[in-house]
Every structure is written in structure tokens, then in C-alpha cells.
Automatic annotation (TrEMBL), chain A:
It comes from Caenorhabditis angaria. It catalyses: GTP + H2O = GDP + phosphate + H(+). Its EC number is 3.6.5.2. Belongs to the small GTPase superfamily. Rab family. Transmembrane segments: none annotated. Pfam families: Ras. This is small monomeric GTPase. PANTHER family: RAS-RELATED PROTEIN RAB. SMART domains: ARF, RAB, RAN, RAS, RHO. One of its GO terms (biological process) is protein transport. InterPro entries: P-loop_NTPase, Rab, Sigma_54_int_dom_ATP-bd_1, Small_GTP-bd, Small_GTPase.
TrEMBL record, chain B:
Residues 571-709 form the Rab3GAP catalytic subunit conserved domain. This is Rab3 GTPase-activating protein catalytic subunit. Pfam families: Rab3-GTPase_cat. It comes from Caenorhabditis angaria. One of its GO terms (cellular component) is cytoplasm. It is found in: Cytoplasm. Belongs to the Rab3-GAP catalytic subunit family. The keyword Ribosomal protein does not apply. Keywords: Cytoplasm, GTPase activation. InterPro entries: Rab3GAP1 (IPR045700), Rab3GAP1_conserved (IPR026147). Signal peptide: none annotated. Coiled coil: none annotated. The keyword Cytoplasm applies. GO terms for molecular function: GTPase activator activity.
Amino acid sequence: MDEGSTITTLKILIIGESGVGKSSLMLRFVDDVFDPEQAATIGVDFRVTSMTIDGNRVKLAIWDTAGQERFRTLTPSYYRGAQGVICVYDVTNRSSFEKLAHWMTEVDTYCTKEDAVKMLVANKIDMPNREVSREEGLKFAKRHRTLFIEASAKTKEGVQCTFEELIEKIIQTPNLWDNERPRFVLGQTENNGGGSCGC
Amino acid sequence: MTDSDEENDIFEINDFTVVTPLEECSAAVEHFIQKWGLYDRRPLCSPQNWTLQVKESCTISFGENKLKIQYIQPVSPIIETKFDSDGNDIVVVEEHQNVPFALVEDLKNIKLGFDPNDGIVLQFGVREYLYVTPADGIANQITTEAECDTILGAIKLALHASRCEIPVIVLAKDGEQQIKHGYGTDGISSYNFSTVSLRTISQQHSHLNGLMAMFKEHINVKSMPDDDEIRITTRFHNFAEIRTDSFFRTLNARKLTMVPFGSYHYLPINVISVVATWKDFREDVMTENESHSDFDINHATFWTISLEQLDDSDKNLILTSALKAYLRTNEGRLSDKTSKEALGTFYTPQGTTAAFDKLTGGNAMTLKIGGTPISEIISEINGPMSPRFVNLWISLMFGDIRAEDLLNDEFKQMYSLQNRSTKHMNDIVFVIFEDLLYPDHPQNSLNTALFKAARQPSLGWKLAIAMLNIQVFENANVRSEPQLWLEFVKRLREKYENNEDIDICETSGQIDLSQCFFAQKLQLLQACVIARRKRYALLENATDVAHDEFFDAEDDFNESLRNLKLEEGGAQGRLKKLGNAKLFKNPNESIYVPITQDRSPMTEDMLDEQTDYLCNLNEEDRILAQLEPLRSDMMGFKAANPGCTIEDFLRWHSPKDFDESTGEVSERMRIPDNTWLKCWNTTKPVAVINQARLFNDTKLAEEVLELFENATIEQFRKWLKPIVFVVAFQRVARVLHENSVRCFDWIQKSNDAMRMLVVATNSDNEAKYAELSNWITKSEICLSAALHLESLFNSVSSSPTMLGPLPESQPKREFILKLVQNWYDKLHSPEPVDDLNIKPQDPIGRAVANFCDFENQEDKKNRIPERKEYILNWNVKRPSECNYKLPQRMYACLENEFNHICFSLGHDCNFNNTIMD
């Protein structure tokens, strides 16, 4: 694959309760910075970057959303066309973990791509006052069939990995991103199915 | 072997520079026989299961002529496929033993009968042969029998020289006057193949007895008492016409709510071909001469049944015809025109004053929830269809229950004007399909959520059905489609202006982005209606003034402010208490959640625009661009909570940023000059009713309505396309599942079609739509034919001439489906189809005979088969009684002006076989 050209553009959405570190996670990944005084997001913020996974260069459009209830009336539109959803909670804030079920319902309701890849990120693991254990996070991720990782936007731990794992998983699901060539993909299955039927 | 050695020696001293074309040709043929390894004994393929394959092919010259030689061999079907150690496929087929002169074995095998479809096998009874034809077709045709014999002569030389036992057939003339000559030998006996083609055949040879005499004459041996009998197989082709009159669809209101399906004017099939075969009988069993025939079709060994399509019946399919405009949305000469343009003189623009009167006059008090009175509709459109009729149709779509009866009255009137009785019920197929699909049918086994279209039974879904109906509506013309569209849009406007729900089935005002563009736009319109109702309600609550003075809050800011009902302490726009929370600076005062504004809902196109816009801004501008909703909330909050601080606001708006236990605002909110603080500090207390609108429903609704009004025909077809294909698919799937001839195979295929539809609607994939349309056409024609056949079978049960057990439903269904499947495959696939054979005396056979009128005694005498075929076989010693018995064969095909007789006659040329016994 040519390093210069990207095979596709992926939309990645970051969701989760207010103050769990969604923006910090995105900024750490895209700009490799961490601002302890990161302002609360208003509406939605975007970053565009690109990365190489298994030799494939992909462009990423990362959507960072505000966590406050009042900003979420446009929620369905954020989910539109997203191939990956990162759902963040704060390990030092139990309520942000307890709200996850609500977020998962939202993902299932509004994702327009049926097999969009979901990822659960436990953020702020550098903090001493942990309230949610790794096991609890794992259990939840397992039940909701998501990827799971513990990370810290502050110390960088797990951040790169979060995005790499997610993108890799998306790339392995061509239905998600290869919609420019649906005929090609489906044509293959037709040939395998035996062409004798006249239907 | 010495013979051939000698020959070779002689050949070698020849001067090849002066070889004749004949010798050259012969040498070429010999070369290929050697190359392809066709000399010596040949394997004998099983007589049961085989197909013919062209194994080799080459071109040789004969003088100036180019000849194509094909080697044709019967092959057994593959038993299994294995993999060898390298992973390559190994095909396992039945093993065949080599036999001397396989040609004789083939000829002896009378079981070959009429089974083969290939001409040569049928005509001469050989399966393995070399076929010589002119290489360039007509230009190089071998015109005379003499030429043909010369070529054959050259080939004979080669056959003998290479000891090739495979017969060679040379095609001299093709078509009506077919001439084929051939030769085959194993050195001991030899066969000559010849054809006779006649435009007219004398009366005395046009029947079995005459043909038998001809056969014997050709064989020209004296009959001996110990001779085998001649064995005969015959097959007579009969075509039975099925009575159908042309018919009209008789419509009613209910049918307009269904996707049209089936055939119209004519039924798709009107001829059944019944080929009656009498298999392998002795010469004296059946008699057929000029005055008498023993061949009674009802007592044949078996029938081979197939359907015939007399003309292109695809054009008589309703749904297929209706879909055409959606498969190619620019179809039709007016498709690039807007509806108003397309309507031409039928459209008279009227002032918009009436509309605006309604706009300003409407408010919460005068909301009419019921339907718009039909008589009040002012029509700008007066044709081509009756405006009243179109408006009733649209009322039906919008859920006005009165419309059904009124519409049926219109139909009655329409038909009485045309002098057509509503009882005109020749439309068998249409009657059969009735009662299958209703818009109010709540169950839907199909997961329509996967399609990017409109949900059943939403307004968009109903419109798609109406638009399909208009395409095939009998009284419609090319301008009816824009008329229906424009009236529909007009009704949308009326609904909006009267603050009525746009779609009684989707009143939430939520925009579902997984649905198609058109469905989203209708949802947006509904959202506008809801927003306006809310606005009015708010104003009514907040003010004492007459409603109509408060149409637009912005314009009336000052006046409304003066008239506002103030809450205690000058608070405005309170919704409810925020739990037990008290103001940060005033613990005696509860915090109130303010009435807030809704954000503007967005359809996918607006969303894309918005995203593009936001993406192109720098971070600061992007925040500012999204600040209005926050500012609106802050204004509302301040108005509802006089004396409040940002701490109070955060407790409601972003509780995470306020620590209830310490009473502290989070670190990030304390950053000096952060957007939240800045915004808070610059915001005045303004209750929602006095705020600028975040969701400008008036503007958005007007945009949608104008977009619809000014759409070209092509444009609105494109919008409706996904829904149209979904409703078409649903209809077909429904008929597949619910009719009496449902077939598992076909239902299976509908799953493939559903997957096509998912891709097509989600990616607007033209190729998938085309594929889907083919499937719909196939289903429509096959189902129409199957249901028609079923009704024929059903009619038999009440026939007085039908005796004995009636066909049982399962075998009957299988028979019908197989018949229809074969018919379709024959028309659309080059692969040969398996014959469908039945016994004439079985219940199914007798039912077929009944509706084909075969049992009618009068008819029987007059019935002359379209084509008669005979195969005669005789094992006889030839040329003299001293020789071995050899199978002799004659095939005759008699059909009006095309009569062919083919002989395969062998004689033993080795006189050493002269054995007296």
C-alpha cells in the first residue's frame, strides 16, 4: 500500500459523561499534549489525523462530544456514519461508570452502521482515588461486546493503543468502511454461491 | 499391420508438392485424429447420465474452403471432486470400458430415444462424432451434395488410414433444407449417414405405416422369419391454447393502497405445449395411416409439459412497468421539468394570500386536528385527472377515513361513464392477489429497518405506493404523476399551515437518520409543526393578549415583555424545581429549571452542511458557532432564577462541575476567561419566549415545502426511489409467502433480494437496483403464471368432465412450480432445462387434459399435432443374410413445410463373416 494515499476515512466518535476526559484523550492522541485545565467542550469538537495500521494508511475524523445532558439533543446526528465509538468513563468517578449502560443503549439506538466497533476506555488510571476496578470494566465490556482498555490521557498510558486497536478492528471489518466498492465485495460472495440459479 | 507399413512407404516416396486438395484435406484430418488420440477402440459412455461436450476443435482447408472440425464426446457427470497431495482438484467420473465400434452400441441402445437435445444424436443416434461444418458460415457454404460427398471422401480416407472408429458427419446445408452426410467404420462394417429434407411430403409417407415402408425400402433386404422386429418410439407435439380474454383491472380505493402486482390486459401464459411420447413399441402394436391413427394423446407413455410465451409478456406486468420510471428516473420526456412546468395548462398559479391568511390566522385555539374539509380545497391544478379524485386519493394517504367511500363512488362513476361494469371480473390474477397487503397491516415479518427508506406505514411509504399506482393507472397520462406529486405537496403545506400533524403515523418530530432523505424531510416538517405548537402554547401561557398578535416572538419582543405574567420575584419561564437545590447565594430560594429551547433538528443534508461548516472553522470560532444553545440556556436560567450565580447554573447544566459536598466549582470552570464564564457574564436574563429562536421552524418548513414544490420529476423520483423499491419488494415477498403456490426455493431467493435491497438503498447502488428489478420481474411473471395455472387446476375440479381423483395439492403445487421455473429458465438461461414428464392418466395428467380440452371427442378427431417425430430401429443382417446383424435407424420429423428424414444405415463389409446357420 502506498504510504502517501489513504485507503479510507474513518469517523470515530468519543462519548461518555461530562468530565471523564474525552477531550484530553483525543488531544493526547492527536497532538500529544495534556492540559490539566482543559475547558469543558461546548457542542462538538473535531480533529482530523491519520495513522498507519498494518501498512494501510487511514484518515481519522475524531468527533469529541460534550458530555452534558443539555448538549445531547443532537446526539443521533453525531452517531451518523461513525465506524468506531469510544465510550469513556472515569475510574475515579463511580457514577460515570454506572451511566455506561445508558451510553451503550444510545450507541445501539443511533449508530447507522450496524457493525460499528465499540470500545470502552477506563480513563484516569494514574489517579490514586480509583473507584472502579479493572475487573468491573472488563466485565461490562464483555457483556456489551466491546473492546476494553485502561488508559490515562495524562501519562499517555494506553492512549495510542486505544486508537490503534480500534482502527485495526475496523479495518478488519471491510463492510464498515469499504462502501465505495460494495459491488466488488458482494460480487465475490455471489460467485461463491454458485451462479447456476437464474434468479 | 503390414498393410499400413506398406501404405506408409508408398506415402513417403510421393511428391507432396503436387498433392491434390483432397489429399491435403485428408492428411490434415488424419493429423488431427492422431493429435487428439481418436484412433482405435473408444470408451462407451453410460446410456443413462451424460452430456455432450465439444472436446476439440480445429480448422482445416479443403481447396479454397475452410472447414471447421469439432470433436464431440459424451461425458458422464462428475461423481465427486477430490484433492490430490498438491491440493489440486481431481475430478472423479464413472469409468468407461473401451468397446469395439462404439457407434453400433449407441445405435442399438434404443433407450436414447428422444432424450438428447442435440440434433445429431437425435437424427442419427450417435453420441461421439466429428462434426465438419463450413468455417465461415454462409460465405463458405458447401452447397451441393456432390461437394459434401467429396469432402466426406477425403475424410473417409483419413478415417481408414488412422483406424478411427468415430463417425464423421458433414453439414452441407443448414436451416430448412438441411443436408448432412456422414460415415463411420471400424474396418469390418461401415455406416452411412444421410438426410432427406422435403418441403412437402407425400401423403403416403406422412404417417407411421408409410415411414416404415420407406425404412424397409432403404434397408433393402429380404425379410427373414428370424428377423428382429422393428422397434419404434414416437413423439407428437401438441400445443393447447388456454382461453383468456383481455381484461381490465377494476380498481377501488383499497387497491390504490396496495402496490400493483400481477399481469394486466393479458395473462402471461396462453399456450401449454404437451409433447406426447409413445416409447419403444413393436411395429405391429400401433397403426397410423392416412385414415386412421392409434395414437390417442391420452394414452401416450408420458407427456412432456412446458409453457410457451407467445409474445413478450414482460410488458404486461404491472409492477415491472411501474418500476421502470424508478429504475431510470429520467425516463419520460417531462422528467427534467418541475411538476408545475410538466402540468402546463393544467396549472394556474394563484396568489399566496390565501396561504398567508391561514398562516397568520392559525394558532393553538383554532387548531384543527381532524381532516381538512375536502370541499374547501382551492385547486390550482385542474387536471389531467379529476382534481376531486386526486384530492380524495391524497386524503386517503393522509389517513382520512371518509375518503375511501368517496373514492369508491368516484370509481363507480368513472366505470359507469366508460360503460364498464364494476363486476368485470375477468382479471383472474388481480382477483387472486386481492386482500394480500394493507397499509394498516401491523405485522411485518421483514426487518425493514435495514433498508434506508421510509418506515411502514409512514406517509412517505404510502406516497411511494401511490406513485407506483399512478405509473400504471389506466386513466392516467404522463402529466398525472406531477399532478399527484404537486397535490401531495399542496396538502403538506395545508397540514403545516393548519398546524396539523403531517403524518398521523409519525408524530414524534424525531428525525431518523437511518431513513431516506425524503422520509427525513417529512419528519423535519412534522418537527416544525410540533415546534410551532409549542411556541404557541408557551405564548398562551405567558401572556393574556390575543393570540394572533404573537406570531413571531422576536418582532414583538417589547410588547410581550410588557405583558408577561411575572412569577414571584420577577422570575420568568420556570419549568420546575431542580430537586431541593437552593440558590448558592440565597439558601431560601429554590433553583428552578427554566423552560428551554429545542435545538434545530437536522436532516442528513443539513447535518453534512453543518459538519463541513464547523470543520472549516478554527477552534475558537467553532466554539462560538456552537455557543448559542448554551447562551439560550443561560438566559433562560437567569430569567427563571433571579439572583442566581454560575454555581447554580452548573448544578443544573453540568452537575459534574459542581461539587455538592464542598460547594466548589470544578477546576476547569475556574480557568479565568473560559468560555462558560465569559458567556455567563455577558448573558442577560431572557425567558425563552423572548429569545431568538434556535430552531427557526417557519424558515425550515418553508424551505422543505419549496424544495418539494420546485422539484423536477426526476428529482422526486430519486427521493422516492428507495421507498418505491422497498414497497415493491415487500409486495413480492408477501405474495411469495402467502399465496397458495408458495415455494421454498423462491422464498430463499427473496433473502438474496433483500440483501440487494439493503445495499441498494444504503449506497444508492444502481447495479443492485437493476438486479433487484430483474428479480421482481421474474417473481412477478412466475407468480402470475403459477397462480394462473393454479386457477386453471381449480377450475377443473368443478368441471363435469373431470372424473376420478383430483390432483392432490402438494404434487399439484410441485408440478406448477416446476413448470413455471422451467419456462422461465428456458427463456432466460442458455442451460438446457430438465423435462417435466407426467403420465397422462395420473390425476395431474387428466387435469391438464381437461383444461387443454384433450378429452373432447370432437376435438380429438380434428386435432393434428404440430410436429410428429418417429425413431425406427431395426436389427438386421445387411447387405445379405450372411452378414452380422447391425442396427439400422431412421429418424423422421414431420412438421408442415419442414420434413426431415435421417438414415443411419450400416452394412457389414467383411465377407469372412459369412456364416451359414
